[in-house]
Write a structure and sequence with these properties.
The chain is of the alpha/beta class. It contains 12 helices and 8 strands. It has a single domain, classed as TON_0340 (inorganic pyrophosphatase (n-terminal core), Alpha-Beta Complex), CATH 3.90.1640.
Length: 334
């Protein structure tokens, strides 16, 4: 099978899971179509191409994650930390980069537990030493100053946001239910503002449109006005995040979007070791939940992500591995 078809398959795999929810498949299809129009190619290919052109040994990459507000999600949700961990590992193995996971202190436990679980499970934990965590202050009035200080300290060459909620046109950040959760989320979007000013690569990964990066596709009102889901708070606007990114990766689950990026890199670089295994997925999710993360939909401490079972999470990992292996097999038969 040609690489282009495999890349299309990878994108499609990561759109699984929404068919059983009323309107969800249609919403995903519209979001994906808009992101694909922006990229001009499969999303996993666009992200891999830009990363290969940007990253180099020792380069700092900021990974932004952490979503969810008290009291339902006091330590965040299970969507985000797993994707950040898998992507961090992939970037270290592929390019020798120095990933820095940026989030508020309340998200630290699940993030660190997930990283450690992947390092233990994958059996190649040397990459873990290159990955660090950087706390970002919760006070929004200090976000601009904190972003500038962090930038001056690490000089990142890329910023990737995975399931990180962002503000709408009125400056209000919403969860998927349309509730105002601005006060519970630090203003990490200031980092993307700095990145745009300095010409640094930005990639946003999300699943609903209220995440950082989606401003790039939501501005195309004439084609996707129906994507602007109304909110349920006094701002009387929508949950749509207006903060843009160069590349937007859409998936049913944001973790899967990060996995698709790694699969795209595995194909582009011919390096299947970048992919994680189903057993790694299990260990990461267990560690994440044990550290306090909850399912983002049910708010329960269960081995689920966005109400989708661990079995389905493992199946997506298996399918992605199979797609990459199929390309390798077809090339060896030429």
């Amino acid at each position: 099978m040609a690489p282009s078809r495999i890349l299309e398959t990878i994108d499609r795999i990561c759109l699984l899971g929404g068919a059983g929810v009323t309107g969800r498949a249609r919403e995903l299809a519209r979001l994906y179509k808009a992101a694909r129009s922006l990229a001009g190619e499969p999303l996993c290919a666009a992200s891999a191409r830009r990363l290969e052109a940007t990253l180099h040994p020792g380069a700092a990459v900021l990974l932004l994650t952490g979503a969810g507000a008290p009291p339902r999600l006091p330590r965040g949700e299970t969507d985000g930390p797993l994707g950040a961990a898998v992507l961090a590992r992939g970037l270290v193995l592929a390019f020798g980069t120095r990933p820095l996971v940026v989030a508020e202190a309340r998200f630290r436990g699940p993030i660190m537990a997930t990283l450690d679980a992947l390092a233990d499970s994958a059996g190649d934990g040397s990459w873990r030493r290159a990955v660090r965590y950087a706390p970002f202050p919760s006070r929004r009035n200090s976000a601009t100053r904190a972003a500038a200080a962090l930038w001056d300290r690490v000089s990142p060459v890329a910023i990737i946001s995975i399931e990180r909620l962002g503000p709408n046109s009125r400056g209000v950040t919403h969860n998927v239910m349309g509730e105002d959760v601005t006060a519970a989320h630090a203003g990490v979007e200031s980092l993307l503002t700095l990145a745009r000013r300095r010409g640094v690569l930005t990639i946003g990964v999300g699943d609903r449109g209220n995440e950082l990066g989606f401003g790039s596709i939501m501005t195309r009102r004439s084609r996707i006005a129906s994507l602007a889901r109304p909110c349920a708070c006094p701002c009387r606007s929508t949950i749509t995040c207006t903060v843009p990114a160069e590349v937007v990766v859409v998936a049913s689950v944001s973790n899967w979007g990060a996995y698709a990026m790694v699969a795209g890199l595995a194909i582009r670089l011919g390096d299947a070791r970048l992919l994680h295994h189903p057993k790694d997925e299990t260990r990461m999710l267990k560690a994440c939940v044990l550290a306090g993360a909850r399912d983002g939909i049910s708010a329960q401490r269960r081995l689920t992500v966005d109400a989708l079972s661990l079995k389905l999470q493992r199946a997506v990992v298996t399918l992605l591995r199979g797609a990459v292996a199929r390309l390798k097999a077809s090339e060896s038969n030429l």
